[in-house]
Design brief:
The complex is a heterodimer. By secondary structure, chain A is α/β, with parallel strands linked by helices. Chain A has one domain. Helices cover 27% and strands 35% of the residues of chain A. In chain A, the strands form three sheets. In chain A, strands 5, 6, 8, 9, 11, 12, 14, 16, 17, 19, 21 and 23 form a twelve-stranded mixed sheet that branches. A ten-stranded mixed sheet of chain A has the order 4-3-7-10-13-15-18-20-22-24. In chain A, helix 10 packs across helix 11. Chain B has a single domain, classed as 3-Layer(aba) Sandwich (Rossmann fold), CATH 3.40.50. Chain B has a six-stranded mixed sheet, sandwiched between helices. The two termini of chain B are 25 Å apart. Classes of the chains: A alpha/beta, B alpha/beta.
Chain lengths: 470, 254
Amino acid sequence: MSDTQTQLDIDREKGNFRYDVDYEFDAGTGLNEKTIDYICDVKGEPDWIRKFRKDALKKFLEKPMPTHWASHDLENIIFDKIRYYLSQGGQKPKKTWDEVPEDVKRTFERLGIPEQERKFLAGVEAQFDSEAAYSNIKEAVGKQGVIFMGSTDALKEHPEIFRKWFGKVIPTGDNKFSALNSAAFSGGSFIYVPPGVKVSHPLQAYFRINAENFGQFERTLIIADEGAEVTYMEGCTAPKFDTATLHSAVVELVALKGAKIQYITVQNWSNNVFNLVTKRGLAMEDAEVKWIDCNIGSRLTMKYPGVVMKGRRARGEVISIALAGDGQHQDTGAKMVHAADETTSNIVSKSISVGTGRATYRGLVNIPRHLKGCKNNTECDALLINTSSRTDTYPAITVRGTGNACQHEASVSQVSSEQIFYMQQRGLTEAQAMSLSVNGFVNDLVRQFPMEYSVELKRLIDLEMEGSVG
Amino acid sequence: MKHLKIDNLHVSIGDREILRGLSLDLPTGQVHAIMGPNGSGKSTLAKVIAGHPDYTVTSGDILFDGESILAMEPDARARKGIFLAFQYPSEIPGVTIANFLRAALQARLPDGEELEATEYYAKLYEKMDLLEMPRTFTSRAVNEGFSGGEKKRCEILQMAMLRPTFALLDETDSGLDIDALKIVSHGVNSLRGPETGMLVITHYQRLLNYIVPDYVHVMVNGRIVESGTKELALKLEAEGYDWATEPEAEAVGA
């Protein structure tokens, strides 16, 4: 097993490195009104945002930890020890990699971001701790009227679109962590796609946590105007620290009439990160919001991407893959809120638990009585690798009225020893056999990822699985 | 010429002894058939040679060209050249035949060497044609939703691609209609040659009309009780196994 152990460590090395950075801007530890004033001042934000943040702080402090239903591990987050704003290169992201400070640039180069940008992306934003270090969109895409910039710039430069939707899909008080994000948010993307524009290549954001005892609170708002289409991908890594790091984002999507938004996440945080994210999309008439969500890293992830189907024939979809390795808890799922006739939603969730890993599926589907012709399909499959692995499923499905339909399927399986023997008999090692089985289990979902991501995903799964047998 | 030699092998599963001093010498270039009634230990023999973890070898040895393979993992035995065509092949959901075979071939290459994709597919299609398998087969998940005949054909396809030194065919004829049997046998026969030794395990003589063995062994109660040429199979067909299960018969073969 020693060989495979080494390879598993190599995987950890991918994001597990850190260059020393002198932070020019540091709000210190703990979150209070002064912290918020500091953030507003360095960012030069308008007064309405300062008020918005301070109201959110009150709500955050009022709200209890949701440990009556969620993991008690949340109690291990010491909010007073976390640093809420750290920036190295100032508040304005650079438009070329040459302008990005050297120590930040080499981090992203090591993660392969500039290379991916050249190869297949329409635009990239690279966030380092609290601020985007780099943000650029390909000229051709910009000429179509597509806006792609950081949230701080957007609220200043495009207040008329920004204010209309900001905090409307996910209100500040939605949950404790959406309130926290609303108080301390910095970074994240703002995207506006004008009517009828179909962005041919994905836009990508990469979120990098570099500092210890730090909280990253990016805020993303994507608006696809009538008939527009856009795909957005996000990736994330952090070095491995002994202390807990917090990542708590809010992502709001708005798909206007006939628009399509696809949002893809490959989360590979290190195992000390609490990843507590609120993601929700609003789909108007004939619009479609699709979340493709893959969680491999973190200590505890709590994330339930949702779609509110507000217009007739709107569609919502969540495709979710979770891999809970030793000591990890992936608490993920989906929320589908049907609020118009003939809306359809689809949830496909697959989880793999390895070692002492725990994967939890939580689903909420709501179809009220007065609606007609609504449909939901939910499938959740769990794969357990070791006898110490755990999986739980908590589906909450409320379907009322007579003209609506819902279908729910769930399964729990194990890779059988006969299957492993069969594959070994063909010459694959036990670890290779396990890895191939797991890749087979998620294969139909992985195929929905863009090529570049599915290759990366397969590789990550291979590396995670190699340490799991023996 | 290489030899797969089974030397006075005793094998148990739990407290139950299944093989009780079995000896056999299979050289490359020959096809040996093992026949016997249900429960005589035929399938156990195949699985033990392949290294199935459920079985314990209590004494005796299995030698691959003079070298004991008892301490080797199943995958190391496979890469050394032992192939088992399973009686009940496992399903591998989501893993296509093309990807599975590719991974199996890749596992046989030295570190850092990549399988050449074009050559691989050319070879795969050639072998599929031989077994009259449609091209669409490559994109189906291994054994998932296969009919009995498809499973057996898929086993032989893998054997054809992996080119083992010693192939163990466990009840490859079970569940096959006569047309499928002919196709599968044709595939197996095309793999016969001086580089390959085959052990064909079967309950019925029927298979041996199509895969004609050089030698036939009769296995009863975990031992080989009689060995002979292919005519022995005809005798079994005519007389059944009763004569062999009688106590005095044991002395003849062992």
